[in-house]
Amino acid sequence: MGKMINSVRGPIDIDSLGVTLTHEHLWFDVATLYKRAHPDLVMTDEKVTKENRKEILRDLHSVVFEYEDNLCFNDVGMTVKELESFKAAGGQTIVEVSTADIARNPLKLREIAEKAGINVIMGGSWYWFPSLDDDFRDFIMTQGKNKVADILIKEIYEGVGDTGIKPGIIGEVGNGDYEGTDIIYHAAAIAQKETGVPVICHSPDLHVLDIAEEEGADLSKFVMGHWSLLCPMEEAFRRGAFVSVDQFGMNFPGIESDDERVGAVLRAFELGYEKKLLLSQDVCWKVRLKQFGGGGYAEIFDSVVPKIRAKGISDAEINSLFTDNVKRLFM
Q1: Which residues bind a divalent metal cation 1 (predicted)?
Q2: For 264-301, what is each residue's pLDDT tens digit?
């Protein structure tokens, strides 16, 4: 038996991870997060459909956040149905990075995992400091990193609340340049050092690795998430971290294209750091689901893998990105 990893259905052997996507969402509520952070934000109650998908995607910085329904995955049956394509493509494990402030729900995640017949590794932490309630923001600012770390450590060892369901990763951690966010990153590093659990970061900013180093955490257990053209990929690799190219399928105006993301994959191979590369899709809007006209949880296998293969990367090398590299992260 190999190393055991916390999943929502209990500990699983590292060798049973199989083909894994390391940055996805299955049950969450981003709408409430944005309402808390932006009290004046006006949202429509119009439901997402295939017909209004194009309108919703017209502007990623405004319209996409005006449709409350687009920002909530709160239907077990819907998500289980969507995961059929992932499983049919050979997928076995989803790392689910929804945090407490975007309605992480351990019991719902376990139900999804059981009904879909896959492994789900749940995250733990907080995503966006302005979205936290006043009392918890005050707790972070007054009690400091060690008390915040205690919450993460307790969840990993004992489970979330009275569910007994334990996070297998810390994250996705941190969004935005706030003093409270840095405290959370310090807490995540402290918890990583104590538990050995990997940390998935929202930001690819190397400042996060400085914090991890300061706390004595293992940088090889840190994932620099959401690669972009501005991401200092080579330096992150050099310092031992993983880099996650995890927004495949987001071929929308204003952000990198899948072709540019494939270029990042090729660059990692050129640098000789392909063993520190992770790939995923960050499915976090309903318009990205198959039933609403999107590519769903298997889009990376259906549309992206052929592009990588066409650039000369072998099937064995591609498979290793989804299997061996994930095992290295959790080893």
Answers
A1: 23, 25, 172, 282
A2: 999 999 999 999 999 999 999 999 999 999 999 999 99
Residues annotated in a binding site:
23, 25, 172, 202, 226, 282
> What SS3 state is found at 107?
helix
Q: Is 124 helix (H, G, I), strand (E, B) or coil?
A: coil
22: closest CA among 245, 193, 211, 196?
245
Amino acid at 9: R
Q: For residues 63 and 157, give the distance between their C-alpha atoms in angstroms, rounded to a whole number.
A: 41
Percent of the chain with pLDDT over 90: 84
85 phi-psi bin (left φ>0, alpha ψ -120 to 50, beta other): alpha
Task: With beta carbons less than 8 A apart as the criterion, state whether 40 and 75 touch.
Answer: no
Backbone angles phi, psi at 236, to 5 degrees: -60, -45
Topology adopted by domain 4-330: TIM Barrel (3.20.20)
What integer pLDDT is reported at residue 130 of this predicted model? 87
Give the chain's residues under pLDDT 50. none
3-state helix, strand, coil in the chain (%, to 5): 50, 15, 40
> How many helical (H) and strand (E) elements, i.e. helices and strands, does the chain have?
14, 12
Q: Which residues contact 5 (CB under 8 A, 6 or more apart)?
A: 11, 12, 13, 14, 17, 121, 168, 330
In sequence order, which residues have a C-beta less than 8 Å from that of residue 112 and are 6 or more positions away? 26, 27, 76, 79, 80, 83, 120
pLDDT of 1: 64
Sequence ranges of the binding site for a divalent metal cation? 23, 25, 172, 202, 226, 282
Cβ atoms of residues 131 and 99 within 8 Å: no
Give the integer Cα–Cα distance in Å for 64 and 106: 27
Indicate the domain borders of the chain: 4-330
